[in-house]
Structure formats: structure tokens, C-alpha cells
Design brief:
With 376 residues, the chain is an alpha/beta fold. The protein contains eleven helices and 17 strands. 31% of the residues lie in helices and 27% in strands. The chain binds S-adenosylmethionine.
Length: 376
């Protein structure tokens, strides 16, 4: 049965909307950081890189809902995402609800709010949506939602920091962003072959394997291929995936993305391309021009080579560099016309424009512009 769900969007809500649109139907933003969407299956938050919490609509009152699920004992918190909400009011509402539950013979513990909504960390550490008897109710206007999933920040941090082969110079693609890039390819069937032709230390390939896809990685550098291999072996062991076909069929190879002949049939491509030199302050004009030329040549060379080797409709999602300017805007490669001529359609989103698809952290000089394509 198709049901409506609520998503609490991440730090860059437009990117969350694009990710949701790629996987679900009827995505509707309802405020700056909330959206509803529809799905025939219960959505799994662990496969969404940019969504903080997912809620299921409660048709009864919060009291009826909690009385129904409590089994004599309940730990709960309320997160109010309505306009004008504050911690004082939310805590008051939760304590009032607790009193009534106690009167009904239910032992209740309230998760106290520091702000109108519980932070993702508080919800995660209290095992909301995972542990029996632990609930978070979201209020938005007159509607109430029961949280069924919270972003697993512990698992993302482990995938990022505990992998054995890391290289700060190659860049640190956050696992969440890798997952977003893969999801922007759409809902691929299990065992699809996912190519990252600039695989570096293998973050995209790691996330692809976790999502049930066969990792296929190539990179110009032999050292990077060794790093990817080490990281994928580590993850497969950690997650008990060594017997799975996604691990058995993975392939890693040294190759230049501009002229390599990929031997496997490719179902989707997701990658962070070459990003140019690392930078700690915005580049001067001449340096920026040089960097742009260098990066464009590699990225367009790769797309030209790939176009001959993939079928019509193959999703190709690339994160390319965009540079911070002294006025805090981002300077882009502006390659969309050339990309069109090379045989790719740019995918447009209902709620998001290309301008919104820049993934960055505060003060980061080399950000990533996400470009979602399909082979014509
Ligand atoms: C920004 S890094 C990608 C990092 C990667 N996402 C990871 O998880 O570590 C870019 C990678 O592109 C590789 N590279 C640069 N030029 C290339 C080319 N022409 N063909 C293939 N790989 C290339 C570099 O060796 C580097 O590993």
C-alpha cells in the first residue's frame, strides 16, 4: 500500500529533495526543512545520505498512539517543527502527556528538549525507531508523525574514519555524499554494476556495495586502486558481505578515464571526478582559470570516452569542482552545453534547480557541484 511519509531534510535541504525525488514519488516540500513523499514500502533511512529523520503519519491523537504502543512503559520525546515552536512549549506538552499516561497506569519517561525539536544525535542515541518502547513524535502544524528512522551518525562516522586506507590529499568524500550520488542514479535493481572511474580510496564503491550493487572502480593511480581494495575488503569483513556476489564480483583496475575500455557492462556511473589542486583560500583569477581548464579537459574527456561505452538511459552522476569566490559565491565549470553535445541529457528536478546542487561545508574552497545525467 502506498503511504505518505515525512522527511526531515539535511543541512542542504535542496540536495535532500533531489535525493528523495530520485527514489520516491510525490515529493512535496512543506517547509524549509520538511518534505512529504510517498512510498509503497517502508523507507529505509540507512540508504538515504541526506535525510535526518523519517516519520509515519499518526491518524489518532498522540495520547491514543502512545497508549496503544506503550506495553506498560514508554520513553518518548516530542519534536515540534511548526513555525514559532520553542523548547519551553514542547517540553510543557511532553510533560502534560506524560502525566496523563501515568494516570493511565503507563510508566513514561520524557526526552527533554534543548530546542523545539530533538537533535538528530539525541534521537539516534536514544535509539528512536529501533528500540522497543522508544518513540519520538513529530508535530507539524496540526499533524503528528511517529519517527520510524533516524540517521545513523555512528555508522557514517565509522565508515568514514575507521577505514584502513585514507588520503587527505585525494579529498575526503563523505560517505553520505557518496550515498547521495548513488541514489541520484535512481532506484537501481540489486546487483547492478556501478562504475566509479575516479575511485580514489573507494568511498563511492563502499557505499555501492552496502546498497547491494557490484562495485567497479578504475583510477589513474595504482596506489588508489590498492587503497580502494583495502577499504572494500575491510568493509566486506565488517559487514559480513564477503560471501555476497556484490563483493565476489567487484572489479578494480588502473586506467585513465579519458581512454579506458571498461570491460564490464555498466548499469550506472557515480563518481567524484578529479577536483584539481586542494586549496585553503579562494584562488586568484588566473589560478582559477588554469584549474578550470585542467579539470574541464579531464571531465569532458572522460564523458566523451564513456558515451561510446554505455547504453541509452544509463544514469551518470558526477560531482565536479566549484570554487569559492571572495564574495562567497561559487564559480562553476559551466560545462552543460558541452555535456549535452557529448550525448547526455541533464536531469531536471521538480523542486530543485541546477543552481542548488552545490555540496559544500562552511568555508570549504573546493566544493562539489552535482550533475545528474542520462545517456541519450
Ligand atoms: C577527488 S579524487 C576522488 C576521491 C574518491 N572519491 C575517494 O573516495 O577517495 C579524484 C581521483 O581521480 C583520479 N584521477 C585523476 N585523473 C584521472 C584520470 N584521468 N583518470 C582516472 N582517474 C583520474 C585521482 O587519482 C584521484 O584518485
Amino acid at each position: 500500500m502506498v503511504m505518505k511519509y515525512l522527511a526531515i531534510l539535511g543541512r542542504q535541504p535542496k540536495i535532500s529533495l533531489a535525493e528523495l525525488e530520485s527514489l520516491f514519488d510525490t515529493v512535496e516540500p512543506i517547509s524549509e526543512n520538511l518534505a512529504t513523499f510517498e512510498s509503497g514500502n517502508s523507507p529505509n533511512i540507512n540508504r538515504l545520505g541526506s535525510v535526518l529523520k523519517i516519520g509515519e503519519k499518526i491518524e489518532s491523537s498522540p495520547l491514543e498512539f502512545l497508549s496503544g504502543v506503550a506495553k506498560g512503559k514508554v520513553t518518548f520525546g516530542i519534536s515540534d517543527y511548526s513555525r514559532g515552536a520553542n523548547a519551553y512549549k514542547t517540553n510543557g506538552e511532553a510533560l502534560k502527556l506524560k502525566k496523563i499516561l501515568v494516570r493511565h497506569g503507563i510508566k513514561a519517561r520524557v526526552l527533554q528538549n534543548k530546542t523545539a525539536a530533538l537533535s538528530t544525535a539525541t534521537s539516534h542515541h536514544n535509539q528512536i525507531g529501533e528500540k522497543d518502547g522508544h518513540f519520538e513524535l513529530i508535530k507539524y502544524g496540526k499533524t503528528w508523525w511517529n519517527v520510524i528512522g533516524v540517521q545513523n551518525i555512528t555508522s557514517y562516522a565509522k565508515r568514514d574514519q575507521a577505514r584502513p586506507a585514507r588520503d587527505a590529499k585525494v579529498g575526503m568524500l563523505p560517505p553520505k555524499l557518496a550515498q547521495i550520488l548513488i541514489n541520484l542514479c535512481g532506484d537501481l535493481p540489486k546487483n547492478s554494476v556501478l562504475l566509479d572511474p575516479f575511485c580514489g580510496t573507494g568511498v563511492v564503491l563502499q557505499e555501492a556495495m552496502l546498497l547491494g550493487y557490484i562495485p567497479y572502480g578504475t583510477d589513474l593511480s595504482e596506489r588508489m586502486i590498492e587503497y580502494s581494495k583495502k577499504n572494500l575488503d575491510w568493509l566486506a569483513t565488517e559487514k559480513n558481505l564477503t560471501n555476497q556476489s556484490t563483493y565476489a564480483k567487484m572489479e578494480l583496475c588502473v586506467g585513465d578515464a579519458m581512454d579506458f575500455d571498461w570491460s564490464k557492462d555498466i548499469d550506472a556511473v557515480a563518481c567524484e571526478t578529479y577536483l584539481g589542486s586542494p586549496m585553503s583560500k579562494p584562488p586568484v583569477e588566473i589560478k582559477l582559470k588554469e584549474e578550470k581548464q585542467g579539470c574541464s579537459a579531464i571531465i569532458l574527456g572522460f564523458l566523451k570516452n564513456l558515451a561510446k561505452q554505455v547504453k541509452t538511459d544509463t544514469p551518470v552522476v558526477i560531482a565536479v569542482p566549484a570554487w569559492l569566490r571572495p564574495d562567497k559565491s561559487y564559480s562553476r565549470l559551466n560545462m552543460l552545453d558541452e555535456i549535452d553535445k557529448l550525448g547526455y541529457n541533464l536531469i531536471r528536478f521538480k523542486n530543485v534547480s541546477q543552481r542548488d546542487l552545490i555540496y559544500h561545508r562552511d568555508g570549504q574552497v573546493v566544493a562539489r557541484e552535482i550533475i545528474v545525467l542520462r545517456k541519450k
